[in-house]
Amino acid sequence: FRLHERADEEPHILLECDSSVLDAIQKHLKLYKIRRKVNIAPCLDLSLWAVIPGEQAGDIAGSLSKCADQALIFTPDPRTEIMGWRLITRKGANLSEIIPGSHVGNIEDYHRHRYKQGIPEGVKDLPPGVALPLESNLAFMNGISFTKGCYIGQELTARTHHMGVIRKRLLPVHFPAPLPKDSIPEGAEILTESGKSAGKFRAGEGELGLALLRLANITEPLCLNIAGDKVKLTASTPEWWPKNSSK
């Protein structure tokens, strides 16, 4: 998030990241300071909120503008409209004052909403060194630029994108019943009815989750082998994806 408003102001950038890798990201960014006068520090006095529209969302932006002193940042979630807005406040801010009529949920509610829509987030859903940008649908979520120039993996990513041959994608999956917490091993294999590998499970909450699946297998009956038991699951293509994108 860009905090400075004009080009002649001193630049201030706020970077949102997975809290579990906060220290690693700071070390990584400091490697590239290269004698520049850049200060990199965590903002531990801030709180991040996901504002997800309900059936009667009303004019959230209008009501929030009245409490601009409490809201440091309020902006549409850049990934997709279905994810609503990102709100950053000072710690201890009163959400009922900032967004009147809002209901404060918990982190499980947020994850369930993400998984239902097939939205990955953080190192659990997108393991570093394992998750590929196009297979993770980042091109659908404003997560890749094909015009900004070179970056690590840019040539392979751009070529694959323009060829349009992506055989696996991260998809939302649904189980017939909620699974016990942490009952599925990380990267557990998903199989077709004939026992052929169809992909790997990434993460989930209750009866919802994300899995990296071969697109050729997503309409077949699928299952996970958990402690010797076969647990059925179904995959779906999110409605927010661009048309003709499930290729």
The CATH class assignment of the largest domain is Mainly Beta
Q: Whole-Å distance between the termini?
A: 32 Å
Number of helices: 6
CATH topology of the largest domain: Elongation Factor Tu (Ef-tu), domain 3
Number of strands: 9
Q: Please identify, by name, the CATH architecture of the largest domain.
A: Beta Barrel
Structural class: alpha+beta
Biggest sheet strand line-up: 4-7-6-5-8-9
Strand portion: 15-25%
Largest sheet descriptor: 6 strands, antiparallel, barrel
- Give helix % range: 10-25%
GO cellular component, one term: mitochondrial matrix
Pfam family, one: Beta-barrel_CAF17_C
Subcellular location: Mitochondrion
GO molecular function: transferase activity
Give a verbal description of the structure.
This protein is α+β, with helices and mostly antiparallel strands and 247 residues long. The protein has 6 helices and 9 strands; from the N terminus they run αβαββααααββββββ. The protein has a 6-stranded antiparallel barrel with strand order 4-7-6-5-8-9. The protein has a 3-stranded antiparallel β-sheet with strand order 1-3-2. A hairpin with an 8-residue loop joins strand 2 and strand 3. The longest helix has 11 residues.
Structural key phrases:
single chain, 247 residues, alpha+beta, Elongation Factor Tu (Ef-tu), domain 3, 2 domains, six-stranded antiparallel β-barrel, 23% strand
SSE layout:
Layout: H1 22-30, E1 46-51, H2 60-65, E2 71-76, E3 85-90, H3 95-98, H4 107-117, H5 122-125, H6 154-163, E4 168-174, E5 189-192, E6 197-205, E7 208-214, E8 222-226, E9 229-235
Antiparallel strand pairs: 1-3, 2-3, 4-7, 4-9, 5-6, 5-8, 6-7, 8-9
Domain CAF17 C-terminal: 167-243
Protein name: CAF17 transferase
Pfam families: Beta-barrel_CAF17_C
